[in-house]
Design brief:
The protein is α+β, with helices and mostly antiparallel strands and 142 residues long. The chain folds into two domains: 3-33, no CATH class; 49-141, no CATH class. 42% of the residues lie in helices and 15% in strands. The protein contains five helices and three strands. It has a three-stranded antiparallel β-sheet. The radius of gyration is 24 Å and the shape is elongated. 1% of the residues are buried.
Length: 142
């Protein structure tokens, strides 16, 4: 919490200002913190984790509610992409063939670090549909 906001809340607690006055002061602080129109906003912080959260209600196969919470460091994904450049071309061909045989049509030779950054950037808009209307899954970066 910043110092100005803390001071406003302190004045409210001491009875020096009303709740309405505190709200007006806090709103003014927030407007002051926003960049003026036409000025670029601060860049978003670089995400550090890919998170997948699944919540399923009680019932179904499990008698208790299910919850899955997976947090993968994005640095691991970034490092994996960089490692593909170290794979010898003849081994890369074999890996791509095995991936294709397993139903994953991806060419690791074409995978570049920028592709991972583009993927991470687009995860803000990701929506996952489930056949089970009661369960919810969220995939996002943090």
């Amino acid at each position: 919490m910043n110092e100005e906001r803390r001071q406003i809340l302190q004045m409210l607690a001491e009875g020096k200002i009303t709740a309405e006055e505190a709200e007006l002061l806090i709103d003014a602080l927030e407007r002051q913190a926003e960049p003026p129109p036409g000025e670029p906003a601060r860049p978003k912080a670089r995400p550090k984790y890919l998170r997948v959260v699944l919540s399923a209600p009680e019932g179904g196969e499990s008698p208790s509610p299910s919850r899955i919470n997976v947090r993968v460091p994005l640095q691991l994904l970034r490092a994996g992409v960089r490692l593909t450049s170290l794979i010898p071309p003849h081994a890369l061909d074999k890996v791509n063939a095995q991936l294709l045989q397993a139903g994953v049509p991806i060419d690791l030779a074409q995978l570049k670090p920028q592709h991972i950054e583009d993927l991470i950037e687009q995860l803000d808009d990701l929506t996952v549909d489930l056949d089970d209307h009661d369960s919810k899954i969220r995939v996002f970066c943090e």
